[in-house]
Amino acid sequence: MSLSLNESLNQILREAFLAAGYDPKYGTVTVSNRPDLCEYQCNGALSAAKEYHTAPFVIAENVAAKLSENPAFSEAVSVRPGFINLTLSPAFLTRFAADMAVLDGFGAEKPEKKTIIIDYGGPNVAKPLHIGHLRTAIIGESVKRILRFMGHEVIGDIHLGDWGLQFGLIIEELKDRRPELCYFDPSYQGEYPEEAPFTLSELEEIYPAASARSKTDEAFLQRAHERTFLLQHEDAASVALWKHIMALSVPDEKKLYDQLDVHFELWNGESTAAPFVPEVVETVKEKGLARLSEGALIVDVMEESDKREVPPCIILKSDGAALYQTTDLGTLIMRMRDYRPDEIIYVTDKRQELHFTQVFRVAKKAGIVPEETALVHIGYGTMNGKDGKPFKTRAGGVMRLEVLISEVEDAVREKMKERYEDEDLNEETVKQVALAAIKYGDLSNQAAKDYNFDIDRFASFEGNTGPYILYTIVRIRSIIRKAEAMLSETPDFTALTDASGNLKALLLSLAGFTDMIRTAASELAPHKICAYIYQLSDIFNSFYHDTPILKEEDPAKKQAYLELLSLTERVLSASIDLLGFSAPDRM
Ligand code: ARG
User: Quick check: pTM over 0.85?
Assistant: First the structure.
């Protein structure tokens, strides 16, 4: 059994239109745009008027007459020029809540199960994670959890940038600094050492130095390109150094992702796809898609309907080197072979849109990915500083992710000091609240939009923030703790059938969960969850403010209140889990 408030109401309206002698297709409801008058409305009579050459108000009246006895509504009335205003009955909502409370996933309808790969994270190995890596991690993790909640098999792949020029740069810089190392001795025959000849912090210093040098020293850059080519063609010394860099860098990144509660099933990367590059080249040649242009092998992907120029996709550069798009195509060959996914979702900065347009088109044209497999790119906007300008450290550099996290933790700690006694100031809680501040601050914006990262606002316990949602959950848990024994396995809300005001609003808001989550999943839109839980939290807090729950004298009512709190807590906790964070027990 699945639950949908919208679908249930549509069903009732369709039947009423039919019973009144009209086509049921006109029976659809929308949330009321006059919440002062009603909760839902049906505008179908206005469209039906044309077909039946009847005044819309007459149709609305006839349909409303069929609804007057319906137990779902406490009021169903026609108003001019032809709306049907609907007010749900508390009995209908308490029944709905009782079903929600016992059904798996609160009764959200599960679509047909798909296998989905989600490609997110994608840091380039050898440089520390910085704020540019934050959005893909946060959005990707949330989308993954949402799709899993809907019952899909979802595999997250980090797709490391582990095969590019940065390795050529690092290795050549190292060669200049430490020419005596065996990796640089052409006559060396032995095994390469297991220990890396550098530490992680040396590596983190070497890379930016090499990168800066390459901007002015052209000969050096040329050497780095040649070294990258050697690495990609399995030169033993280069591969040995590559392995050292990976072994130091990847576990360090993993630690930070763990701290963000972001977890990948696969730690593949561009290098994993490298063995498939020859097959990419063969396939595009075989299909007659490839042509040579100034020595490079390219595939035209422009389509007639394109309003803008879509340049050809370069498969191999004139020196024979594979590019970012080539390894992405190789990765697709591998993913189709290993998982036969129904859908692959990529989460990157929206500036990579052209790249994915090119890759997707080549993949489909070349038959690397069958027509029925969906390739989706979620392109997100830029995270700016509080002033709307690119987010920078005080010194003007790119801020490391660790630094950002600790700055948010500092802000949260300060706010908590204002509110709590010292003994409640637990560092684990600070971390948990800071993570909620960061993730909610990001996810509450539509992904494609730019947003301003405002530490002070995100860490606030009031307003549309992560800490406010956590605070609401913690508050509910603390009330429930005082009366836990009263909760039952199969909650009964019939004592609330006289609900009005904030209590009714709370029931109505809870009933909206299943429709909300279906939309969030089909639109890959975590911000819908944020908007929903913010509204639910607000309604709950108003209800709590004017209802002395634990002092309620009618035991049936008191129990129903507690059950309702418990359901609210469960819906909020499940929702934040889908956003990728969790609530402490106290804060
Ligand atoms: N490493 C890339 C970057 O830093 C992101 C990888 C995204 N995933 C992909 N399959 N291209 O821009």
Answer: yes
